[in-house]
């Protein structure tokens, strides 16, 4: 089971783990995974001091892939792959990415 969304500053996700955001004034993305009994498996925060938004999340049970999508400003690092928005600073770039590291933990 997965949960995803946007966070400001930090988010306590359970089991004594907190995801720290990069900014208290702009959104970062988060993705957390729980096992079938509801126990926290892991969690990740993605983003920088610019706006990142996440309204799209999909899971492919046949491959174990987690897909994330939406828009971002600045730099977005998902699984060691840096996506850089090189457009005007007021424009948002679109992204579609997989977060397979968390999917397989």
- In helices, the fraction of residues equals under 10%
Number of domains: 1
Portion in strands: over 45%
Mean pLDDT: 77
Largest sheet: 3 strands, antiparallel
- Uncertain runs: none
Query: What's the β-strand tally?
Result: 10
List the helices and strands and how they pair.
Elements: E1 2-7, E2 10-14, E3 17-20, E4 28-34, E5 40-46, E6 56-60, E7 65-72, E8 75-78, E9 81-84, E10 93-98, H1 100-103
Antiparallel strand pairs: 1-4, 2-3, 4-5, 6-7, 7-10, 8-9
Would you give an account of this structure?
The two termini are 12 Å apart. The protein has one domain. With 105 residues, it is mainly beta. The model has no long low-confidence stretch (mean pLDDT 77). The protein has one helix and ten strands, in the order E-E-E-E-E-E-E-E-E-E-H. Strand 2 (10-14) and strand 3 form a beta hairpin. The protein is globular. The strands form four sheets. It has a three-stranded antiparallel beta sheet with strand order 1-4-5, with no helix packed on it. The protein has a three-stranded antiparallel beta sheet with strand order 6-7-10.
Properties at a glance:
105 residues; mainly beta; globular
Short description:
The chain is mainly β and 105 residues long. The chain is built from one helix and ten strands.
């Amino acid at each position: 089971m997965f949960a995803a969304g946007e966070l400001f500053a930090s988010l306590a996700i359970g089991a004594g783990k907190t995801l720290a955001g990069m900014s208290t004034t702009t959104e970062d993305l988060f993705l957390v995974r729980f096992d079938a009994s509801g126990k926290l498996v892991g969690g990740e925060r993605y983003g920088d001091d610019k706006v990142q938004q996440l309204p799209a999340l999909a899971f492919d049970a046949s491959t174990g892939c987690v897909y994330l999508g939406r828009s971002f400003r600045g730099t977005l690092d998902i699984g060691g792959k840096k996506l850089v928005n090189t457009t005007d600073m007021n424009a948002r770039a679109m992204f579609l990415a997989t977060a397979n590291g968390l999917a397989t933990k």
